[in-house]
Design goal:
Elements: E1 4-5, H1 21-24, E2 30-34, H2 37-47, E3 54-58, H3 63-71, E4 75-84, E5 87-91, E6 100-104, H4 115-123, E7 127-131, E8 148-152, E9 163-167, H5 182-203, H6 212-229, H7 238-246, H8 249-267, E10 273-275, E11 290-294, H9 296-308, E12 311-312, H10 327-335, E13 336-339, H11 347-363
Parallel strand pairs: 1-12, 3-4, 3-6, 6-7, 7-8
Antiparallel strand pairs: 2-9, 4-5, 8-9, 10-11, 11-13
Helix pairs in contact: 2-3, 5-6, 8-11
Length: 369
Amino acid sequence: MFEIGSEFWNESVSNRRGKSIFNMLNSVTDYLLLFSGRTAIDFALEDVAKIVTSVYVPSYCCQSMLQPFIDRNIKIEFYDVIFSSKGVQYVIDYKKQCDVFFAVSYFGFLSTTMDDVIEAFKNNGVIVIEDITHRLLSEKSYCDKADYSVASIRKWVAIPSGGLVIKHQGALAEQEVCKPPEVLIDIKVRAMTQKYEYICDMENGRLIKENQKENYLALFSEFNKGIQFEYKNLEIDEISRNLLNSIDVDTIRKKRQSNASILYESLRKYDSVKPLVNSFDLDNDCPLFFPIKVKSYLRDGLRNHLISNKIYCPVHWPYPASIGLKVESTKIYCEELSLICDQRYDNKDMKKIISSIEEYLCDKKIKNL
C-alpha cells in the first residue's frame, strides 16, 4: 500500500462468510446502535436509574470520553494508569466513593482488561460502565459484570458513524433517538469517497489532482469538529447500519491478529522502542492498534519519520485539555505510539513499518538498548 494509516476510505464489501457485528450481539441482554462512542456514554448515563454526580475514570483517556460527563456537570476523579516493565497497570482506590466507575480495557489485549476491577466495584454497589472500543473484536469482547458496555464501532471499520451501548441486566429504558444530521453524514461519505479515489489514483500511478488530498482531509476535519457538538440522542445512520450487516468480523479479526503478530515479534527485541504489552494471545486478542512505548525524547521524531515514509500512526491520546494529572500519569501521553495493524494492510505493509522504525533507530545510532 502506498500510504498506511489515517481515516478509513470507502471499500467494496464482499459477501460475508463469517460473523457480522449483529451475530456478536446475539448473546447480550439489550443493545442499541448509536451515532458515536460519545453518544453511547451519554445514553448509558441517561439510562442509570439514579442521579449521577461523580465518576471515577482512568487518567489515560481522550477528551471525547470525558465530554459527556463534563456536559452533565458530573464530578470527575481519576485513577492512575501507568506503563511499567509489567505493561499497563492501574492504581485503584477500591474505597473511592463514586456513583459510576468507568473502565477502559486498552488496545484489545487480554493483559490490559479490567474485569477483576470491574467486579470489585460492582460488588461495592457502584454502577460500572466499561468502554469496550479497544476490545470489541477480541474473543472476550466485554466484561459481563459491568452494568453497561459502550463502544465506538467506527474506529474499526469503514462506516460513516457508529456507536454501541449494551445493558447487561434488564432492558434499556425508552429514550427518544433521532436520525443524525444528513449534512454531517454526507460530509463523511464524501470524505471517504474522495480518499478512496485518491488511494486508487496513487496505487495505479495516475495523475493526482490539485489539492486532492487536502480536500478530503478538510472534509474529515469538518466531520470530526461537527460531532463534538452533535452527539446526544442520535442513532447510527442507515448507510452504516447496512454496511455493518455485510462486514465479515472473522476476516477482520484474522487480518489484524496476523499483522499485530508480525509487529510484536519484530519489535520485542528493542528497549527504546518496544511493545507496550508483554504478552499477546494470537488466538484471542484482536488489537485496534498495536501500541508501542517509545522513549519520550524519541517518540515525536519517530512519528515524524514514519510520516515522511507515508505511514500515519496516531498517538493515544493528545493530552486532554480539561484535566490535571500527577506527573507519573502524564508520562504515558508522551511515550505511546499506535502502529497501524488493521484489515486494509498485509505483511508487506507491516514490514514497511518495521523497516522505517529500524531506519530511524539506525539513524539515531540506537541499537538493541
